[in-house]
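Encode chain A's predicted structure.
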Amino acid sequence: MFSQLPTDNRELNWFTLTEAIAKRFDAEYQNQRPDLPDEVQALPIFLDWQSGKLQNRVTSKFWELAQPKKNQHCLDLGCGISFLIYPWRDWNAYFYGQDISKVATEILQSRAPQLNSKLFKGISNKPAHHLESYQDSFFDLAIATGFSCYYPLAYWETVLEQVQRVLKPGSFFVFDVIDPTQDMAEDWSILETYLGAEVFLENLNDWQALIKKSGAKIIKEQSGELFHLYKIRW
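Encoded structure for chain A:
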């Protein structure tokens, strides 16, 4: 599936996780929904998921912390089809996407150039910790929303290292994590498990410790109904 194959046991574990997550999102982009058991359908969030309202409730508005600016080179990790949804044309910023979903990648490769071939700089079908195709200190902004919960903290330590490398000094990285204290968190993680992707519910203190360990500082943060946004800088 991916151009980068695992090279050690840690990479193999991450590769296995990534394949499962990719399969879960490929199904979503193809509008394929599994039959869920009664106990999942009884969850308070099920009807919102079924109607499509849940996505709007949990989407992190990264632009409220760091809006892409004109002519900035922006890396969107786990981008899905965000170039087709969010106002990149209004921001007039250059979009570089990366996502593990082959279906999302194909959709974006097909439609995004028609929407704006100047701003759309392409999308790679790779996981977030493989940024070797990008030069050091190239991007003005990096974004990663909606998928941190599918990987352990050790994985994100590597992601932070790679993002720091490709960001220009002093530039921002905006990403979100699940706040396990939110009322929705446990039910949402159960739903996601049945949709095919395990969820890691990590304490926010552990995320903050990881950010500090990476050498970054939290510039701003924002709480949502499920996800907690961080804006950090090295």
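The chain has a mean pLDDT of 94.
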